[in-house]
Every structure is written in structure tokens, then in C-alpha cells.
Input
Amino acid sequence: MDADFIELDGVEKVFDVRRRAGFLRRERHQVRAVDGISFRVPRGEMVGYIGPNGAGKSTTIKMLTGILTPSGGRLRVAGIDPSRERTRLAHRIGVVFGQRTTLWWDLPLKDSYRLMHRMYRIPDSRFRENLDRCVELLDLAELLDVPVRQLSLGQRMRGDIAAALLHDPEVLYLDEPTIGLDVVSKAKVRRFLRDLNAERATTVLLTTHDLTDIEQLCKRVMVIDHGRLMYDGALAGLHEVGESERTLVVDLERELPPIEPSPEFAVRVVKVAGPRQWLAFPASASAAPLVARIAADYPLVDLSVREPDIEAVIARMYETGAAAPGIGGTDVGAAPGSRSGG
Ligand SMILES: Nc1ncnc2c1ncn2[C@@H]1O[C@H](COP(=O)(O)OP(=O)(O)OP(=O)(O)O)[C@@H](O)[C@H]1O
Ligand SMILES: [Mg+2]
Output
């Protein structure tokens, strides 16, 4: 049961939509938002769930919470069928939708938390303890008396993450929890999630467009496109099958000819603008040795590493023929030993 904590077998979601097809006439058609997805997530694992816009990620998460009922297939979370026992499941899961809040818009943050305290019948001591922890680690102390509508996006998001955790959920679904956050807030949220997973063994399913989230948090990543699972394995393996590249952005003291590190680094300069240079290198390689070499040989002022964007990685998967739509839960490509559980 712990190995199959989250279980999907051939899960489908088809939406019936009507669209205008002329003056007064409307045409019905179907959108297969999720088109036969199968996977398992063992208890305590932190898994990335990524894909381009409209891929079916949020629809999957809505089915996992019971908000939406699947059109086909079988789905269980902690042995519970979400859409049939939504309330029972609600006590065991936490959800954060980055795009919209679960907090009460006009109430101060702390009043929302009080309402959750009662709704979920959280024991007082537990509630205190969890709230204190979230307030401290997510920097919420100054915000507790502020009405939610006055919070900035990043503040609201941290408030939402706390709200999702007050009742000690065993599973946390995060649908773009870092969207719109600045670098400092992102780092804070990531550290918080990493600790949560390590200390409480909370199972986490994380949807994001920021591959750095995945890189820092998830050993395993699933890629979904057009409602189908395209890849399930380690992030490094995804970069290998997609042959994707990261970019090292280097600021030198002055304008210099393109950097030429030794050939073992498989690096090429893709752009030079004044003292700034952009170097592309395979995403599956570590940046550390390359950075060390450049720092030793060049007058370095600053540098940063840019992750490839998900759309580019997926596009490369199609180009290289590595993509295998509809694999339904099997590993694609090179990622041996990357899946835990079983
Ligand atoms: N309630 C709905 N009615 C009709 N179609 C819908 C509904 N919800 C989602 N869809 C469609 O289902 C598909 C998948 O949508 P979904 O929101 O799951 O994508 P996503 O992977 O979360 O994308 P994004 O990265 O943009 O958040 C899209 O084509 C979307 O238009
Ligand atoms: Mg979405």
C-alpha cells in the first residue's frame, strides 16, 4: 500500500465543450485533457509533474483531489477513490493552486487559518505547533493580520502553502507553487518543502514550469504532453533523452574574445554582448568543474546558470525520437534505477 500510495491506471478525463461555429450555431466537441495515464507514487516520494501549457497537469491534480471525476480508468490516493470520498480524502491531502487561493479573500490571514482549524477539526496543540512552524519558516509573522486581498502574490502563496499544511496532510499537491515568486521567496519555499518531505515524509506531487524547482526537489520527474505520459524517471535522464542544454551566463571584468575552455567540457559560446558571454553545455553535466575552470582562467565578476525550459526539452524529445507517447507508466529512455518504490 505504501508503494502504491498514489495509483493511476489508464486514467482519462474528457471534457465536452461547445464552441461557436458561426452565427447562433454551436458545435460540440471533446477535449481529451488526460488521455490514459498510469503511474504509481510511493509514500514519502517527491515527484515532479511537468509539461507544456494545456498538457493536462492541473486536470490530473483536480482528479487526485476529487474535484473532478475521471471519465475512465482507475485512481486511488491512500486507498481512497477521490471523487467518491472527497471529504474523507480531504483530511489526508493538502493542495496549493498557485493560480488561485484557497484563503478567504477579505479576512486576515490568521482568520483563514482559524477557520481551517475548525473545518478540519485539528487538535489545538497540533494546530499551534504546525502554525508556529509555518509562520517561522515561511516568514508569515508580519502578514497574519493582513487581509489576503492586500498580500502580494509571493506573500499570498506562502500563506496558501501554510494553509495546506495545518492539518498534517500525508500528501501535498502543489500546482505551480513558485509561479511569480522572486528568487528569495522561491528559495525559501523550496527549502521549506525539502524539509517537510525529509522530516515528515510527506508525499509531494509538484507541478511547475521552473525546472530549477524540479532539480532542487525531485529525484523523479514525469513529463506529460497532450494528456499522455511521455517520460518517467530521473531529471538527468530527461536531459539525456532530450539532449537539452543549460546555459552558463558569465560576466567578465571586460570585453574579451569568446571563452575557450578545454575540449573535455563540451561547451560552446552561443552569444557575446560586451563583457557578458553565454555558454551552452549539456544539461546532464555538472556546472561545477566548468565554473571552476573559467574562474581560474578568466577575470570573472559574476555568473548564473539557466535551466533549459520545459518546452525546449520536450521539443527536443520529439526531434530526437526519444518521446514515446502513451507509454503509461513505464520508463522511457535512460534512467535506470531512478524510480523508487516498487
Ligand atoms: N473545465 C474544463 N472544460 C473544458 N476544457 C478544459 C477544462 N479544464 C481544462 N480543460 C482543457 O484541458 C486541457 C488540459 O488543461 P490543464 O489545465 O489540465 O493543463 P495544464 O497542463 O495544467 O496547463 P498549464 O501549464 O497551462 O497550467 C486544456 O486543453 C484545457 O483547455
Ligand atoms: Mg495548470
